[in-house]
Write a structure and sequence with these properties.
GMP Synthetase, Chain A, domain 3, 5-stranded parallel sheet, 29% helix
Length: 510
């Protein structure tokens, strides 16, 4: 292993933290508390188990399931061997998961017991060499917990440099096929240094993780970093507003990350007014701007918001709006982190002055290495000077605060989930009644944006929203299914035949 201070392997850093703070509380899950010593022992034994199964440096290890200690243990165990962790979205269908697993070339797959029925029918089409269930025995699956307990602890983690890949996290592409963003050990470490410099952090923090760990926000806004500072993570299997409030009070939570909708739902709970929130130092919020009313509501309880902007490809932090600017810079995504930069460019990649709108470009040690097996997509996203082109349109004001105006891409953000219209359109076009379709996002009070299908039908045909959703359900995760359906005679197009989605938005919102 490298000398302390030169090691970037995020699993090795966690194991070193465990050796320094063995008795401290590392994890709380469904009322079961795990110390750093216990957590590190599980990781070391699981790493040995993976190594015995043939996992080597650079191999990919996947996890499919809801939030669970096994996800974190699997990630660190893989990385301790120099392997690459691939977290999988449990909301996807077997068809969607099959593409991602095979595209990544996953060697070993660990599946939450509750998800084995989803992926089981597709096993014959998967490239994986080893299959584990996380908690209990199942026919045809290896039992992770039992086999891990019998394994010897791995003596030492493999040394890794900052440019070695730690995680491949899949994000949907505008072509409809997901792309795997390669996040290095250095990306993870530097993101967390940026975060620490923005809103602090200490070994006495208690982090509530309720956002899904297959998202970069749930995994690396605070969760991974807490295993390096030696603080505690209170992990919820899935977000539940009432349970989140109960856990904040019970475990004296100091920090929580989430989308604005999560904090809105919490504030609507009957027990919100009586829940003791005095332990909270900061709420970190992403995916959309926080409404002023929500800032004020939590502010009356002494709870400040630190808002952030970022993407999977930026690991994720690219801007922070710290609490003192929450009202004066309302609507802003904030300022660049200490070790990262932002600039706005025109169509010729020339930097624009303050106040002018253009594409948001980002640079720093938190920017991904590239897209897995997609050199073309990597070259299109990261220019020769190392600037990542986000696809978002925005501007910076005279004081350097970033404001996001729109997206170059047509992505819809519904309930904090990214939905790419091209993928949904590809499925809806298969319906025999559909002549043409455009998918877009329309404002929605509950979800931020509602996935909306605008459809022109073949002559003499009819179609309801329920019928369209039922047709698409086998192919798309539920959050990608249309929430609204509008039937039109024809889609508006420009002379080149491109659908004018902005015209549709104006018509439907008018």
């Amino acid at each position: 292993m490298n000398r302390p201070g030169t090691e970037y392997n995020i699993a090795a850093l966690m194991l070193r933290r465990a050796s320094l703070s063995p008795e401290r509380r590392a994890l709380v899950f469904e009322e079961q508390e795990t110390s750093y010593a216990q957590f590190a022992d599980r990781v070391r034994r699981q790493a040995t188990l993976f190594r015995q199964g043939g996992v080597c440096v650079g191999d990919r290890v996947g996890f499919l399931g809801m939030n669970h200690p096994a996800l974190l243990e699997t990630m660190f165990a893989a990385q301790a061997l120099g392997a690459i962790f691939v977290p999988l979205n449990f909301r996807l269908t077997a068809e969607e998961l099959t593409f991602i697993i095979n595209d990544a070339g996953v060697h070993t797959l660990v599946v939450d017991d509750a998800l084995s029925g989803v992926i089981g029918p597709a096993r014959e089409r998967l490239c994986c060499r080893e299959f584990f269930t996380s908690e209990s025995e199942a026919a045809g699956w290896r039992h992770l917990a039992a086999e891990r307990a019998a394994a010897e602890p791995l003596p030492e983690a493999v040394s890794m440099g900052q440019h070695d890949v730690a995680i491949i996290m899949y994000t949907s592409g505008t072509t409809g096929l997901p792309k795997g963003a390669m996040l290095t050990h250095g990306n993870i470490v530097w993101n967390n240094i940026n975060a620490m410099m923005a809103f602090g952090g200490s070994r006495d923090d208690v982090i509530l993780t309720a956002a899904p760990l297959f998202h970069i926000g749930g995994l690396n806004v605070m969760t991974i970093g807490s295993f390096h500072t030696g603080s505690a993570v209170v992990l919820l299997r899935a977000f539940d507003a009432g349970r989140a409030l109960e856990n904040i009070e019970r475990y004296r939570v100091t920090h929580m990350f989430g989308a604005p909708a999560m904090f809105l739902f919490m504030s609507q709970q009957p027990q919100f007014a009586d829940t003791d929130l005095s332990s909270i130092a900061t709420i970190i919020c992403g995916a959309a701007p926080v409404p002023e009313s929500l800032i004020e509501l939590y502010g009356k309880r002494g709870v400040p918001f630190c808002q952030g902007y970022g993407l999977t490809e930026t690991a994720p932090f690219s801007a922070f709006l710290t609490p003192e600017f929450g009202i004066s810079k309302l609507g802003s995504a904030g300022q660049s982190p200490l070790f990262s930069d932002t600039r706005i460019v025109d169509n010729d990649n020339r930097e624009l002055p303050a106040g002018e709108r253009g594409e948001i470009c980002l640079r720093g040690p938190n920017i991904m290495k590239g897209y897995w097996n997609r050199p073309d997509a990597t070259a299109a996203a990261i220019d020769s000077e190392g600037w990542f082109h986000s696809g978002d349109v925005g501007y910076v004001d005279e004081e350097g605060f970033l404001f996001i105006c729109d997206r170059l891409k047509d992505m819809v953000i519904s309930g904090g989930e990214n939905v790419y219209p091209a993928e949904v359109e590809g499925v809806l076009y298969r319906h025999e009644h559909v002549a043409e379709v455009a998918v877009l996002g329309l404002p929605d009070e509950k979800w931020g944006e509602a996935v909306t299908a605008v459809v022109a039908l073949h002559e003499g045909r009819e179609l309801t929203l329920e019928e369209l959703r039922a047709f698409a359900e086998p192919y798309l995760a539920r959050y990608k299914l249309p929430l609204r359906l509008h039937i039109v005679d024809a889609l508006p197009r420009n002379p080149a035949g491109k659908v004018l989605k902005f015209v549709l938005k104006e018509q439907l919102q008018g």
